[in-house]
Amino acid sequence: MQPRTPLLLCVLLSQVLPLTSAEDLDCTPGFQQKLFHIDQPAQFIEDQAILNLTFNDCKGNNKLHYEVSSPYFKVNHDGSLVALKNISAVGKTLFVHARTPHAEDMAELVIVGGKDIQGSLQDIFKFARTSPVPRQKRSIVVSPILIPENQRQPFPRDVGKVVDSDRPEGSKFRLTGKGVDQEPKGIFRINENTGSVSVTRTLDRETIATYQLFVETTDVNGKTLEGPVPLEVIVIDQNDNRPIFREGPYIGHVMEGSPTGTTVMRMTAFDADDPATDNALLRYNIRQQTPDKPSPNMFYIDPEKGDIVTVVSPALLDRETLENPKYELIIEAQDMAGLDVGLTGTATATIMIDDKNDHPPKFTKKEFQATVEEGAVGVIVNLTVEDKDDPTTGAWRAVYTIINGNPGQSFEIHTNPQTNEGMLSVVKPLDYEISAFHTLLIKVENEDPLVPDVSYGPSSTATVHITVLDVNEGPVFYPDPMMVTRQENISVGSVLLTVNATDPDSLQHQTIRYSVYKDPAGWLNINPINGTVDTMAVLDRESPFVHNSVYAALFLAIDSGNPPATGTGTLLITLEDVNDNAPFIYPTVAEVCDDAKNLSVVILGASDKDLHPNTDPFKFEIHKQAVPDKVWKISKINNTHALVSLVQNLNKANYHLPIMVTDSGKPPMTNVTDLRIQVCSCKNSKVDCNAAGALHFSATLVLLASLFSLACL
């Protein structure tokens, strides 16, 4: 058996009937010449033939249809390529697509000296400049299959054919790849006997632009004989997508008075069609402007870039004279380079004319009047201004400053954020007797600086005349508070001091009367005419109304005005201590067991309401203890405590022991207090004081309590 010759596989760019004999190879469907070169003329003339194209589908060219890559050209039925209008620049390359129900093909026209105006279809299609049916034997050459998207029924539709010039009998064609046996499956298939490649459904270039397939021949057992050979299917774009604006809302800002040609914003639309074709070549224009004043053409849009720029003079772009500082533009994007056949999409561009500070604030009056009562504080007048700038910006918001007439800082001015008025306030009470009139000079500026060619004028300053009204003011004590120091227990009727109150209303010559306002202990009296304060009771430093040896009282001074005005003064009396309180002991009861081995009974403490040196050290004594009955003794522990103890055990009973305690004052004061002592029966850890008067405290507990008290001193 002779060795098998290699296969010759060719994918035709034309749609043909299956070849069943060698004679069928004599007619090659498609353009007879696929590549042309012409020199770039000065201008292509309308309806003047450029060249003649010859296409043959080998079936009579029934329903032959031509498409040209540029919208400025067409191919007549006789194959002549002509321009639709006089045009000079069309690019470097034109492509002509011919199609019948049986075949389709592509021819390329190279314009020598032409300039690129868009991407070449050849870059997208990888179009081969060689014949789709090479005649070299024993070689494999495959060219792409070109299929327009959006084809209609019927399907399946033959789109190409694989030819094997030396295929063994019984061998079969097999097609694989994405779109065949890989997702999306079943789009393409091949006749295993004839090699015809067909498409089974409509294609969408925007979903998948190219398919990479592989063709091979196999024997009856499925074993590969030749291949696989790559086969590329390219989906030809149709203008089936409108431009869309995807990035809205579109809001631009331009400063008023901007020079003509100022760029405001850029509008960019998206077209899903092939960006290398006119199907996605967009042109922009303004369809409508609202409002259309002062000019219906306030703005211009660059048709290619989409940049919106101003086209009116700076004087017309004045926010203060515009009916509305907001413009809305309906922007249209059209593909096919803006030709009428192109699809369109629209969006709204909103343009805000922003304010600049070209109008200084001006007072509505040169002079303002205000009145205020002496002693009062708060807002006394609102200063009004006018400003033509945008109320939402710092070019409108006012800032007020007092530039003269406020040496004592008695006045302040603040801006009302809602009305922009200047609120002039008194912050330190004014005195009519010192000055009945005040004159302030106030200026107003904006938060933002003015533009260079504008300045603040005389209208940006104003004068405020303030009249102070006289008010009947209450008398004022001096000093306040008034302070004196006296010993407690001074005799009733003793004079403490004479108060002094003056009337601020010096021009009214009013008289003043005095009275007691608050005297918690009821110790004081005041002369209503001359203000002399004396005592009408004994002053007691230890009184609950005295705090830290100081007694406080309030007095009133009342003038003779109509109505009368009142002033209040405070008197603070510091009371010096005298030894007028005897000391006292604690505790005053105790108990002890009748068989106690420890004869200590209780620890006594002493206290005194007076101050040192009229208190401790204290002297403790047993008062009037009969000599035969001396069973008690008292011993000093420290300056404030002493220990009471037994000399011997006593029978169960109640005892009263007089204790005398003396302080260290000069002269000293003494106090005698009965200490009640219960002698109880203490057996088996039980304390029984019933017979001794039913006191239920053990002597031990009392002693411990006394020791704890001592330790805390």
UniProtKB/TrEMBL annotation:
Keywords: Calcium, Cell adhesion, Cell membrane, Cleavage on pair of basic residues, Cytoplasm, Glycoprotein, GPI-anchor, Lipoprotein, Membrane, Metal-binding, Repeat, Signal. It is found in: Cell membrane; Cytoplasm. It is a lipid-anchor; GPI-anchor. Residues 156-178 are annotated as: Disordered. InterPro entries: Cadherin (IPR039808), Cadherin-like_dom (IPR002126), Cadherin-like_sf (IPR015919), Cadherin_CS (IPR020894), Cadherin_pro_dom (IPR014868). CDD domains: Cadherin_repeat. SMART domains: CA (SM00112), Cadherin_pro (SM01055). The keyword DNA damage does not apply. The keyword Transmembrane helix does not apply. Its main location: membrane. Cadherins are calcium-dependent cell adhesion proteins. They preferentially interact with themselves in a homophilic manner in connecting cells; cadherins may thus contribute to the sorting of heterogeneous cell types. May act as a negative regulator of neural cell growth. This is Cadherin-13. It comes from Felis catus.
